[in-house]
Amino acid sequence: MTDATIIKTHGVITSFRRGRSRQHETQILCKFDGYDNAKTASKLIGHELEWVSPTGLPIRGKITRTHGIKGVVRVQLGEKGMPGQAIGHPVTIIK
After folding, report:
1. For position 19, which CATH number holds?
2. Predicted structure pTM score
3. Which of 23, 57, 86, 90 could be stapled to 53 by a disulfide with Cβ–Cβ 3.0 to 4.6 Å?
């Protein structure tokens, strides 16, 4: 990470964005410590997020909006999406 700034917040991938009969693998939901409602979580919109796989491959996404009223944010990933093993793992916000 040469020109990236790391923000000291701990986050966890909670799930994929989904509906009753469809799951969106390119959109994930994340919860961060210290962001307990939608108003405070909206400050994270526009930041980049990174998850590093067990093999060392980084997957990045961008926080696009809040999800609900409890401080969960929605992250848009690239075309490949996120593997299912990432649910419950920590993520890092990169600005």
Report:
1. 2.40.10.190
2. 0.85
3. 57
